[in-house]
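Whether sequence alone determines local backbone shape is best considered at the level of individual chains. In the encoding step, the backbone of a single protein was reduced to a row of integers, each denoting a local shape. For completeness, the protein is quoted in full, as a sequence line and a line of structure tokens.
***
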Amino acid sequence: MLTTLKTNPKAARLHAEAFLKDHPDVQYLDAFMFDMNCIVRGKRYPRADIAHLFEIGMLLPYSAMVLDVTGTSSDAGGIGFSDGDPDGTLRPISATLSMVPWADAPTAQVLVSYDDSNGEDALLEPRNILAEVEAKLNADGLFPETALELEFYLLDSSRTPERFPQAPISPGTGERDKTTQVYGMAELDHYGEVLREIEDACHVQNIPAYTASAEYAPGQFEINLKHCPSAVEAADHAALLKRVVSNVARKHGFRASFMAKPFLELAGNGLHVHVSVLDDKGHNIFADGDDGKLGNQLLANAVGGMQAALFESMAFYAPNVNSYRRFKPNKYVPVTPSWGANNRSLAFRVPTGDSTSRRIEHRIAGADANPYLTLAAILAGLHHGILNKLDPGQPGSGNTGDKCDPNMPRTLDQALAKFQKSKILPAYFGERYMDVYRLTKQAELESFRDYISGREYDWYL
């Protein structure tokens, strides 16, 4: 049985009507979902049609789920041209209905998802894939509690004549940022207006953002999200946070970028995922019989599974060409499948703290990764490790990021090759989605290369 959205049309309509009564000024509703690249796709409805949408749903072709990052269909898996591009039905997720604070006209928004009437085609949607993976864990009495952290740049809205991005002009100094102080409070003060508006928008949209910090590069920040007992909701929060940051930044004259490595010489943007697991009584299973700073045997098994699935999951964690520029030695970016306690050079870090909050921080993914697919891959590895009692080996200490593991994919080509030979992921994502994702990314990669760069002319003309 598919773990996809099930709705009561009458109750959904009543929910929408109550919202409209409480917000008499609303003129439009944006109904959308996130595709495999975490690009927002959907439709805008006038007020008169909002309640009807909640009752009957929205039609959108399944091919919208398998477009590449430029919005192009490659007919991957025969989805798009070969199948006649059929529509599927998406239903609003009523709990996500909220206002859009940055909109020019009074506008609301709601996430939509392919419901169970779509059969197996519903599993082309990343959100539904994560729901399936979470259900597998729940069936074994494992209930993940997760939180995601996103790094991003606030950039100048205009690029250089050579089309390169530029660090922003600081609202606090009136000068272009050239340096930064990591965790610096002055940076938070200088960008306080835009950061406060991001916080306010998150509050309006029930996104549990709670801390912001300046990171390792000019205009780079991180926003943390609170832990959530639903993996799907945690990924919703992260995807919606990216939308908030992008739109509020634009309103203030900045361009927000979650690109993994916008500048070769500066820090990249990561997506760090914190995960613990509760039993059916709400107890953290990593805390039982806690063996000091590293947690217990179940935590070690979970790490062992994440290690086993790491290399075949890289095409999810680092989904495009630029993603792999982030993986360099001595950059606080993991380049080995290492694990241990309270050490940011590790791939799988056990943060310090009391045993009841014992968790694993998965530090591999870039901010350009899809939160749903990333979290699904992490939980797949965790589940595999616990079921098979995998041993993660000796914990690392000191600097484990000074040399790259030779087996770790360093390019998208290498990642897709390992992805194609996956041993663990197909049981969680399904063979069909694995093929569709790989074919879409291969077509995207071929399209990216079908271009003569300026350097090519400089070197070979």
In short: The mean pLDDT is 95. Residues 350 and 360 are 5 Å apart (CA to CA).
